[in-house]
Write a structure and sequence with these properties.
The protein has helices spanning 11-18, 35-43, 76-83, 93-100, 147-152; strands at residues 24-27, 50-58, 63-69, 72-74, 88-90, 118-121, 130-136, 139-143, 155-157, 160-162. The chain is of the alpha/beta class and 163 residues long. Strand 2 (50-58) and strand 3 (63-69) form a beta hairpin.
C-alpha cells in the first residue's frame, strides 16, 4: 500500500491530531460511486479493512453513524432491532451532508458538524488497522480501530451482510 503526497488538514484530521492519534494518510483518485471497493483496489488494501462511514436515520429522522466494512452492507432491520428502534434507513445525500458537514464520498466519523451516535460493526474492532475516510473525497487515514471506541464512543453492533 503506497502512501501518496501530503493533503491539507480537514476537520477529521484536526480531531485526530488534537487527540494525539497517530495515523497514516493515503490519497487516491476518487470516482463517483466507486466507494470503499474502489479505494481498496487503488491502494492495494483489503476491502474488509477499508471502513465506510454511513449516515443513517431512525424512524424519528434522528441521524446516526454506522461504520461498516467496505465489502459488507448494513442490515437495517437487524440494526434497528439491536438498537430498539422501529426503523433505520440511509439518509438522502443532501440530509447526510447537512448532518455530517462532509460531501458524500468524503464523510468521516471524526469532526462531524453535528454530534451523532456512532455504531461500529464489531468485527472491525478485531482488525489490527483500518483505513477510514479522512474528511475529503479521495483521502483515507490508517488508524487503530479502537480509536473509534475512545474518540467516538462508538458502540459495537452485529449487522453486516455480505455483498
Amino acid at each position: 500500500m503506497a502512501k501518496k503526497h501530503h493533503i491539507s488538514e480537514t476537520p477529521a484530521t484536526h480531531v485526530l491530531r488534537a487527540a494525539g492519534v497517530a495515523f497514516d494518510a493515503y490519497t487516491y483518485d476518487w470516482v463517483p460511486h466507486g466507494g470503499a471497493r474502489h479505494s481498496a483496489e487503488v491502494l492495494g488494501a483489503d476491502p474488509f479493512a477499508v471502513v465506510k462511514t454511513l449516515i443513517m436515520q431512525n424512524q424519528d429522522r434522528e441521524p446516526l453513524v454506522v461504520l461498516m466494512h467496505g465489502n459488507r452492507s448494513v442490515s437495517t432491520k437487524v440494526l434497528a432491532r439491536q438498537l430498539g428502534m422501529k426503523h433505520i434507513e440511509p439518509c438522502e445525500v443532501e440530509v447526510a451532508q447537512r448532518h455530517s458537514g462532509y460531501l458524500v464520498g468524503g464523510t468521516s466519523p471524526f469532526g462531524t458538524r453535528r454530534s451523532m451516535p456512532v455504531y461500529i460493526e464489531r468485527s472491525i474492532l478485531e482488525l489490527p488497522r483500518i483505513l477510514i475516510n479522512g474528511g475529503r473525497r479521495g483521502y483515507l487515514v490508517g488508524i487503530d480501530p479502537r480509536v473509534c471506541l475512545t474518540l467516538l464512543q462508538a458502540q459495537p453492533v452485529d449487522c453486516a451482510l455480505a455483498e
